[in-house]
């Protein structure tokens, strides 16, 4: 279930059917009244069918309308202003509360959408890989860099391409078994689509995206789905939460991979730490 139902409704409005949007709009406009309504009553008020109300509830992660109302009752005092995008005149405390709500929502929803099966399959592919390459554009490049830094300390040495032509040339000659990790929030970036098309069939393609039905995800062997909050505006908080969701997914991959060969990886981490410490200037003692 979403951390905040009202925020989840707003951010997923575009993904709902026309009938479900009618229900969503009514719930957003009358959250207190909805708490006392039956499935049939809400259906009549929203101009939808009872089946649509149940379907809408399940789209939000609830088992049914009763479960949805239970969650709504726990948050009925939520300030409606928290559900809006950051505005030019709000104070710092309101900004902090808005971002906190979005971060919590993103992590909880991403935790649910990252299935154990997909994560375990990705870890197994990484364990078996003789080569790993990773590619991302824009904010996703930051996530790709984080992946490289983490796995490099475990001796895996992933190749990070910063140019699409460089990436295509590299995967064409990448050793097998190998993994190509493509990171794209939308799953529709043309550079990553071109790269995915060029990946040889004997390499495993892992796609990290919020869009499991996207063109990029359709080319993947393994899809890791994130669920960032997606209310957009001039402040682009959605871009912030999409990066947080990607970094969280990479952390899960890293720690699960680390856990699979725990003693070996502890030794590697300690070796990298020791090597770094040797390069640090020694602190002078106080006189």
Overview of the molecule:
With 287 residues, this protein is an alpha/beta fold. Helices cover 56% and strands 9% of the residues. It has helices at 5-12, 18-29, 31-34, 39-46, 50-59, 65-74, 92-113, 116-128, 139-152, 164-172, 190-198, 237-260, 262-279; strands at 131-136, 159-160, 178-183, 203-209, 222-225. It is globular, with a radius of gyration of 23 Å. The model has no long low-confidence stretch (mean pLDDT 89).
Query: What is the topology, as strand order, of the major beta sheet?
Result: 2-1-3-4-5
Largest sheet: 5 strands, parallel
The global form is globular
Total count of strands: 5
What gyration radius follows from the Cα positions, in whole Å? 23 Å
> Could you tell me the strand content as a percent range?
5-15%
What pattern of helices and strands is seen along the backbone?
HHHHHHHHEHEHEHEEHH
Proportion of residues in helical segments? 55-70%
Overall average pLDDT = 89
Low-pLDDT segments, ≥5 res: none
Query: Structural class given helices, strands, pairing?
Result: alpha/beta
How far is the N terminus from the C terminus? 59 Å
Instruction: Compute the number of helices.
Output: 13
């Amino acid at each position: 279930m979403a951390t905040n139902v009202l925020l989840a409704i707003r951010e997923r409005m575009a993904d709902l059917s026309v009938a479900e949007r009618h229900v969503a709009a009514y719930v957003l406009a009358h959250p207190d009244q909805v708490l006392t309504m039956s499935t049939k009553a809400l259906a009549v008020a929203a101009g939808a069918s009872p089946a649509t109300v149940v379907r809408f509830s399940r789209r939000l992660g609830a088992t049914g309308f009763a479960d949805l109302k239970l969650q709504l009752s726990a948050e009925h005092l939520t300030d409606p202003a928290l559900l809006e995008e950051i505005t030019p005149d709000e104070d710092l405390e309101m900004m902090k509360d808005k971002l906190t709500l979005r971060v919590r929502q993103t992590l909880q929803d991403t935790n649910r959408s990252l299935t154990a099966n997909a994560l375990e399959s990705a870890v197994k592919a990484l364990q078996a890989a003789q080569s790993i390459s990773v590619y991302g554009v824009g904010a996703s490049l930051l996530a790709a860099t984080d992946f490289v830094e983490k796995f490099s300390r475990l001796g895996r040495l992933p190749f990070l391409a910063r140019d699409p032509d460089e990436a295509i040339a590299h995967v064409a000659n990448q050793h097998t078994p190998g993994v190509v990790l493509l990171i794209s929030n939308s799953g529709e970036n043309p550079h990553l689509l071109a790269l995915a098309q060029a990946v040889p069939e004997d390499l495993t393609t892992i796609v990290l995206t919020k869009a499991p039905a996207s063109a990029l995800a359709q080319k993947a062997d393994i899809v890791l789905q994130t669920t960032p909050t997606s209310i957009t505006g001039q402040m682009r908080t959605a871009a912030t939460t999409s990066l947080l969701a990607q970094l969280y997914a990479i952390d899960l991959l890293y720690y699960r991979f680390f856990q699979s060969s725990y003693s070996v990886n502890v030794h590697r981490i300690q070796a990298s730490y020791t090597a770094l410490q040797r390069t640090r200037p020694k602190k002078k003692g106080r006189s």
